[in-house]
Amino acid sequence: MASDGKTPAEPDAVERIARALPPWLSAVDAVNEAVAREAGIGPSDLACLHEVIVDGPLPAGELSRRLRLTTGAITHMIDRLTETGLVQRVRDGADRRRVLIEAVPAVREQMLDRYGRLDAQTRATLAGFTAREQEVIARFIETSLHNTRALLDESP
Questions:
Q1: Which InterPro entries does the record match to this protein (predicted)?
Q2: Can you tell me the distance from the alpha carbon of 156 to that of 151, in angstroms, rounded to the nearest whole number?
């Protein structure tokens, strides 16, 4: 047992996970590319649309931060997505001076439908694990996401 009271990871399991992650991430990227093509948009536009569908409505500054784009680039992206009818600008109910970006409701539903098979497959896979294992998987993903974002914040 490690000094922190946790059982150390098996080197073989760590290696299997480390080897499996890149092709899995590539497969998810391929699904995203297919969804983007189907929607008639590019991958970066899809990333923006994803943010406002999952966590929106969001201010442009927050989208800029999340997507690591300049304010000029995010404004251009929002203009493009607005012109194609995928997102809309709305006034913030709490602060009428602030403008938020949200997915057009019909587009939101279409995008959720496009990801339906991946979502169902992911949920079915997770259902094959115990609640305790699911907690470990969730902790791994959340910690990895946090640490990977920290690496991005460190880069020049």
A1: ArsR-like_HTH, HTH_MarR-typ, MarR/SlyA-like, WH-like_DNA-bd_sf, WH_DNA-bd_sf
A2: 10
